[in-house]
Amino acid sequence: xxxxxxxxxxxxxxxxxxxxxxxxxxxxxxxxxxxxxxxxxxxxxxxxxxxxxxxxxxxxxxxxxxxxxxxxxxxxxxxxxxxxxxxxxxxxxxxxxxxxxxxxxxxxxxxxxxxxxxxxxxxxxxxxxxxxxxxxxxxxxxxxxxxxxxxxxxxxxxxxxxxxxxxxxxxxxxxxxxxxxxxxxxxxxxxxxxxxxxxxxxxxxxxxxxxxxxxxxxxxxxxxxxxxxxxxxxxxxxxxxxxxxxxxxxxxxxxxxxxxxxxxxxxxxxxxxxxxxxxxxxxxxxxxxxxxxxxxxxxxxxxxxxxxxxxxxxxxxxxxxxxxxxxxxxxxxxxxxxxxxxxxxxxxxxxxxxxxxxxxxxxxxxxxxxxxxxxxxxxxxxxxxxxxxxxxxxxxxxxxxxxxxxxxxxxxxxxxxxxxxxxxxxx
Length: 427
Fold this sequence. Notes:
Largest sheet: none
Distance between the termini: 85 Å
CATH topology of the domain at 1-105: Serine Threonine Protein Phosphatase 5, Tetratricopeptide repeat
Shape: globular
Oligomer: single chain
Structural class: mainly alpha
Number of helices: 25
CATH superfamily of the domain at 1-105: Tetratricopeptide repeat domain
Strand content: under 5%
CATH architecture of the domain at 1-105: Alpha Horseshoe
């Protein structure tokens, strides 16, 4: 009798999960546990129901109860790792994924998740290691090979990215993404003829795919070809432009900026931002155009919009710096000083938590400079030099710091050093 009730509750719970009625499913699984407190399946199902309801701590507790019953269950360890990933606790997620692997659990989706976490952390080596493991588990999954190509592309390892795409094409010969990625790689290599050839082949093979048409547009824009205007017109008439609105409007805005038409550029981007109900990338570009045209009222307005979106610390830090800078330029000195001061403090915490946040050091340096804290600014310039000795960045920043300090002799020395490293630099 009890076994029948137990089986009924499990069966009902699974059916309710299928219907996405997670609260009712959770009740069924809890009733099953009340009948059989040593049911591994019931705890696992309960954990999954709780996870779907966003009850992450409760889900971890359920999975850990399952772990008591089966300490070496790779599935349970993997599930706990997934919850920690949902909670944003990546180190704990990796810890449990590794435990799952040590228990003999080898799943492509787990390795894919691990690869993604390491890529986000800037560790390309580990990212490649885990995506390779994923491919070994699912050798016929072309998307995994595409992701591998993306990792190589992100780290500028173009030849290896092309090899990964070759492997993918053997498995998925009709994958349109291959054309897009190849075009991106040839663009990065500045091999424009090859990039255009690949983009055109993709467009011819998949004429209705807006992403491949967009890929061709990017190549033409990079080549500064007048054909880019014709293609934009064609995309608008066929409706493809609106299907890839964000990327298409960015490419069109580049063309108008080359004509020094800031007004049309702002209009295009603003309309797209409205259509997209607010987009951080678009707002950042508008902010950049306002900055270059020294439209400080516009900077204040757009930077506030960007900050209110909670767009992540890169965009937020950029917006806050430009907001303070605009206040400064408009003569609102005390307000600007308070914002610069607050920014140096918040960015210090951010760069401690994420040392790879390079822009954080730059905005800290610039903010210190603006409020006359030159020693702190010079210390950050030294750190930047130790970080990237092959770049002209540190000398460029020292040039601006010494200019602010009124020390022309030292400023000119830094300018000379910057130009030695990068002859194209304009200071």
